[in-house]
């Protein structure tokens, strides 16, 4: 459950960063064989819709699971990035108390309806909504960052080997859901080439840090 929530948070970060990045104009053949180009919006509606679904979805899911586990609800969380992370962590913790995989007829091929499986399906479905965005290109193309000696590079914020790179997007992010930068957000950096040393680069993090 924790891995699914962590991956979903990374997907949400990607979707949020893609919102101001419009998809490329795409050609289409219309009647008569004429090639027309459909102009894309100046922003990315698909990424915005995916991020919004996750944003509200995890809050609603947390409320539903909390009610099922404790018998009482809670006031809705605020709209900050930290509250989104807190809702995901709460879902993972509360999920320990939900029902899990009761007896099923071996002939029953329908999806398991236990509380645990329903939560997992929601988390992966939201993540998938980001994976299939045209701007993402391929699903889950994050790779572990290592030194030349194969040792994993530590995150400069949480000091754990949780850094992942999405080279096609020029992005680096920390996969630790509890990690925060100095602005209180999930650490995300963009790759830049050094103007002083050819072949060398640096990471510019969202909070202004350079590594």
What tags apply to this protein structure?
211 residues; 5-stranded antiparallel beta sheet; alpha+beta; two-stranded antiparallel ribbon
Short overview:
The protein has helices at residues 2-18, 45-70, 81-94, 115-131, and strands at 26-29, 35-38, 143-144, 163-166, 171-174, 188-193, 201-205.
Counted up, domains total: 2
Q: Note the total helix count.
A: 4
Report helical residue fraction.
Answer: 25-40%
The neighbouring-strand order within the major sheet is 3-4-5-6-7
Helix/strand order, N-terminal first = HEEHHHEEEEE
Q: Roughly how many Å apart are the termini?
A: 32 Å
Radius of gyration: 20 Å
Q: How does the major sheet shape up?
A: 5 strands, antiparallel
Would you tell me the overall average pLDDT?
79
Q: What form results from the Cα inertia axes?
A: globular
Give an overview in words:
The protein has 211 residues and is α+β, with helices and mostly antiparallel strands. The chain has two domains: 1-25 and 35-139; 141-211, no CATH class. It has helices at residues 2-18, 45-70, 81-94, 115-131, and strands at 26-29, 35-38, 143-144, 163-166, 171-174, 188-193, 201-205. The strands form two sheets. A five-stranded antiparallel β-sheet has the order 3-4-5-6-7, with no helix packed on it. Strands 1-2 form a two-stranded antiparallel sheet. A hairpin with a 5-residue loop joins β1 (26-29) and β2. The longest helix has 26 residues, at 45-70. It starts with a helix and ends in a 6-residue tail after the last strand. The model is unreliable at 25-33 (pLDDT under 50).
